[in-house]
Write a structure and sequence with these properties.
heterodimer, A: 234 residues, Rossmann fold, 6-stranded mixed beta sheet, 4-stranded antiparallel beta sheet, 10 strands, globular, B: 384 residues, alpha+beta, 2 domains, 6-stranded mixed β-barrel, rod-shaped
Chain lengths: 234, 384
């Protein structure tokens, strides 16, 4: 059984079909990229997989449970327990320190554990910045805190929406390397991106166009490591 | 770290690290609480303050004998029915007809020190008699006799029955006295000559006889009525009655003043609530994205309400504490400037002000927070 399965998913706003009969399976431990131009339905799909929206029609099976039929309250619980979210704009709570932002996810999930939160920050290379506020961190550091927050509760899926969209190349590489590390530890990753370099690092990439799954590519040479077009190997 | 500690850490971090934003809300609550607690302090203290002011208008209770005269013992018994802290002064009066320069005038024997307390409005040129042989002469009589302070006068008393019975001695009913002061009141007091009770008793040869006692009692109208009724019912020979002119006008002014302060207090409370609600609405609205994020990472609506209410309550408690202190200073300034006296400190008002501030802030936060929980995390996180 796939970890996540979308069956004949439609999302309809009036005459607009944001998603039109989408079918997709994601296996446990897989690294999937979703690409597509603006308005192709990437965000809608992301919201549905992330339990922040429901499809107009179809089934979304997560661990065999159809989340499309769940109440808003249950969706909150599923989001809390099974999904780790990473956003393009980081979305850290500005008045909480890096470690407190990580503990926030623990607080809603179970019990805050400062030591564990510090370990998560250490995994993303920010243990020494634990007491800093987001305003005292660079964009790349903020995104790494966001990654630490997403992974702290050991979610079944990490869902990243344009995770490198606001980062320079150096920080993009750091974040993708982190994804690689998480993936190698068995975490399932779904990454929505505009950036082909980021998308192509994944094991598989699906392309959306006008709400439909348009194309799918498998990365035969998957290494999980990013290479930039202008990168010169020494 | 348990959840409660994290909860407290989050709400204190929100208040402390967002202080530039929170200071506006805190000020709004503190100012509201200050005005509110100040007005309540004034409202509660007004009767005492106004009572003290009204005592300047003279006695508000009079003891009269039911059968001609009474004694100082009767007055003492009457006084015992009045709470001692309410008694401002008790002045006995005895009236006798005497002659000055052979012309008849009405003399009043009294206790000068007590007269100062029960008739603070008396204006005396010179001084009050401070011992034997001194008189306080009404301004009208002073003009009639062309007397001024320091002048010598001869005061004669003619008993009703000047012929002594067999075996009785004839009193020396003439005393040479000095005018210690001239009394101006603009009222009938200017037609009297005031001498000490001891001198009058010596002049008349009759002791322990009192015609009237004036009392200045600092109490509300209903309490005064209760005192008067008790005294009249329980002290034989003494009839206590109120000076209606003073007590009724005091009661009327007090009622209107308290009603005014109460009205202002209610209006301020309403304005404070509106102000705090507006501020809290702004505070919550600007944090919609944060609420969206919290929902996205698993916060329930109840959890979000608890966190924001926690902040609101903490803010209300802090604002209430500052407001209670400022309110006392405000009430003190009003009291000093309006009533020329300091205000009584009411410790109970501190927890009441804090509780009211917490309640007002809580209610004010509830509506914006409830609407904020309707935020769709997907939309907010997309920046829409």
């Amino acid at each position: 059984m796939s970890l996540l399965e979308l069956k004949n998913i439609y999302k309809i706003y009036g005459d607009l079909h944001a998603l039109d009969d989408v079918n997709l399976k994601v296996e446990k431990g897989e690294w999937l990229s979703i690409m597509g131009p603006s308005g192709s339905g990437k965000s809608t799909m992301m919201n549905i997989i992330g339990c922040m929206d429901k499809p107009s029609k179809g089934e979304v099976l997560l661990d065999g449970v159809d989340i499309a039929k769940e109440s808003a309250k249950n969706l909150t619980a599923i989001r809390r327990d099974k999904i780790g979210l990473i956003f393009q704009q980081f979305h850290l709570v500005g008045y909480l320190t890096a470690i407190e932002n990580v503990m926030l996810a623990q607080y809603y999930h179970s019990v805050p554990d400062e030591k564990e939160a510090l370990e998560a920050l250490d995994r993303v290379g920010l243990a020494d910045r634990a007491k800093h506020l987001p305003s005292q961190l660079s964009g790349g550091e903020q995104q790494r805190v966001c990654v630490a927050r997403a992974l702290i509760n050991y979610p079944e899926i990490i869902l990243a929406d344009e995770p490198t969209g606001n980062l320079d190349d150096a920080n993009e590489k750091i974040v993708v390397d982190l994804f690689h590390k998480l993936h190698s530890e068995g975490t399932t990753l779904i990454v929505v991106t505009h950036d082909p370099e980021v998308a192509e690092v994944a094991q598989r990439t699906v392309y959306l166009r006008n709400g439909k799954l348009h194309k799918e590519t498998i990365n035969e040479n998957f290494t999980g490591e990013i290479k930039f077009d202008n990168e010169v190997e020494i | 770290m348990n959840k409660r500690k994290m909860f407290l850490r989050m709400i204190t971090a929100s208040l402390i690290r967002r202080r530039s934003r929170m200071i506006v809300a805190l000020l709004s609550i503190a100012i509201g609480a200050a005005i509110l607690s100040g007005l309540v302090t004034i409202y509660v203290d007004v009767p005492r303050q106004m009572g003290a002011q009204f005592r300047n208008y003279g006695a508000n209770m009079i003891f009269t004998p039911t059968d001609g005269h009474f004694t100082s013992d009767d007055i003492t018994k009457g006084k015992s029915y009045i709470d001692s802290k309410d008694i401002v002064g008790v002045t006995p009066y005895r009236y006798e007809s005497v002659r000055i320069h052979e012309l008849p005038v009405m003399a009043a024997g009294t206790d000068m020190e007590q007269a100062k307390l029960t008739s603070p409005y008396w204006s005396v040129e010179g001084s009050y008699p401070s011992g034997s042989g001194q008189i306080l002469l009404g301004a009208s009589l002073a003009e009639q006799f062309r007397l001024g302070t320091g002048d010598e006068v001869t005061v004669n008393y003619t008993p009703e029955n000047p012929e002594p019975e067999e075996g009785e001695t004839i009193l020396d009913n003439t005393m040479d006295m000095t005018v210690a002061g001239i009394l101006e009141t603009g009222g009938p007091e200017e037609d009297y000559v005031y001498i000490t009770m001891t001198d009058l008793e010596e002049l008349t040869g009759i002791s322990g006889k009192i015609d009237l006692a004036e009392l200045s009692v600092s109490a509300k109208s209903d309490k005064l009525n209760e005192y008067a009724d008790n005294i009249s019912a329980n002290v034989p020979g003494v009839s206590a009655r109120l000076v209606k002119r003073v007590t009724e006008s005091e009661s009327a002014v007090l009622t209107k003043l308290q009603a005014l302060v109460l009205l202002v207090t209610v209006i301020v409370l309403a304005l404070t609530m509106i102000c705090v609600a507006t501020t809290m609405t702004a505070v919550v609205t600007e944090r919609r994205r944060e609420i969206g994020l919290r929902k996205a990472i698993g916060a329930s609506n109840g959890g979000i309400i608890a966190e924001f209410m926690g902040e609101g309550i903490l803010l209300g408690a802090a604002g209430g504490t500052i407001g209670a202190a400022l309110g006392f200073i405000f009430a003190q300034q009003v009291s000093i400037n309006v009533f020329s006296s300091s205000i009584s400190f009411m410790p109970l008002l501190i927890p009441i002000t804090i509780l009211v501030s917490v309640a007002v802030t809580g209610v004010s936060c509830l509506l914006p927070i409830r609407s904020a929980t309707q935020v769709d995390p997907a939309l907010v996180l997309k920046g829409e």
